Amino acid sequence: MTASVMCIFCVRPWGGEVKHSEQHVLGQRLKKHAEGLPNARISTLASLVFDPQTHEFVAPAATGPLTRGSSLLNMRTRDVCEECNKCWMKRLEEEATPLFLALADAAKNNAQLTLSRAEARTLARRAQVLARTHELTTPGPRVGEGPMGTRLRDGLVLLGSMVWLARTQEDLGIQVRQSHIDISPTPIVMPGDAENLSLLLAISWFHLTVLTYIPEAPGRTQGPALPFDRWTALQPCGGASGVEYPPMVPLHPSAAVVLAAQTARKNAQKAQNAPSAHGTRSTTRSTAHRPGQPSSNAQ
Asked: Do residues 169 and 113 make contact, with C-beta atoms less than 8 angstroms apart?
């Protein structure tokens, strides 16, 4: 994890009245709704590198699994200031949590639920905040800086971002999977020369999965192409009357895992077909967390 010089949302530098806080990524209001969650989590790190010569993805050796002695609901970051944490982020969490739990209940019981456009926007904004704060808990690059944070703080959704909902027949427990995808249209691909970065975050809460896509440069990269019978679009909200959930067909448990590779491949091909592109690299770094039992290597 990189050391920050300012709050990622209000972009004020640390010092004086701008103090670090303990921002829980998933929020504290969900704890009582996750009874029996082990006080441990398992983390793994893997990657896919696109070879422009063979047009194939190469998978370097994965790291992990690493067991840590705290649950997913205790995952937190200190790169959010106290004022943002206790003011607008708290209000957003209070507004979005009942909607999130209603979706989770609908997913569990395969019951129809309709969200208004305002409710969909609230949930989408909350999902984007979760994606940005979870990104701070992992090593690697960051998608965007000040402008993204201030948009969310000001009550707006992120430009070019997409949020989808799915339902799985299988109870997945609580899982968080994050992927970074970078595209580099250069003749000779070198480490660190990525041109555009995108973030994918999938949060599974038992039978509900929320997938958030955030591009660093809206319009230059494309999000996943998702089948409408398995995914419901939350943002952008296309329905005049709101959002109907759940989709007709339940999602296979592995579907969210392979989306990052599919998105990387699509963007790699898009970059190759661009007139100014000479070569492409697309790297996906995925971090997965799931509930785990404490072990001798817990940290």
From this structure: no
